[in-house]
């Protein structure tokens, strides 16, 4: 019998092994049905999340030129520490640009500066780190939260990113910078700084998706493709435990046929994954097209 099996070609043995796997799948209908329905269910959940997730629609905004440097009512400006250098800087800054309506109050330490800030409605603190660097301390509702990089969708000149310009932050910074430059170089740079133009750059229309739903969609995609990896792994482990390969070799199985049969499985998995991704991306594009067309249709009706 062994010699007869060795006479059988590799392709015939491969077809026999594939047919054997087919019979196993038919025998274990419950597991096979789970392997088929599991990706479909998670794919439908993924599509449902795409449909219900809240999206923010931003229309296009043109270039917007902001006004010249201006200062909002800041009647009191405190600074610390009190040294000859800091006094000269604040005196030079007060004369040309801050004006006589602004009171400059020195404080010997940062604690007294913070304590005094609660006594004034509009109070700005200036803390000098050294003769060339300083920090501006505004009330939180005057300027946005301090970050290294601000990403803001500005569709008017009164957005958070432009609030630095209108709150007096930029004006005060320009005054102190020009004073430091004048003390160091004996040249006034205030006129050059006042000629600086601030522009909010134009933005194209866009759709912003919540990151929470992005995470849920990633989990759904991972769960949808999970059977393509778990099922082959369980099948290979089961064959190793039962030692089917060694038994078939005794009966005359070609190694090439066995490897061909194993190769067909990952090829099938790859094709299934590609097909699944094509379906998901096609549905995703159709959904996005509907979402983008929906505001336009509502505007046309209005």
UniProtKB/TrEMBL annotation:
Residues spanning the membrane: 36-53, 212-238
Keyword field: Membrane, Transmembrane, Transmembrane helix
Keyword field contains Transmembrane helix: yes
GO CC annotation terms, alphabetical: late endosome; membrane
UniProt superkingdom: Eukaryota
Xref: InterPro entries: ABCA
Example of a GO MF term: lipid transporter activity
Stated name of the protein: Uncharacterized protein
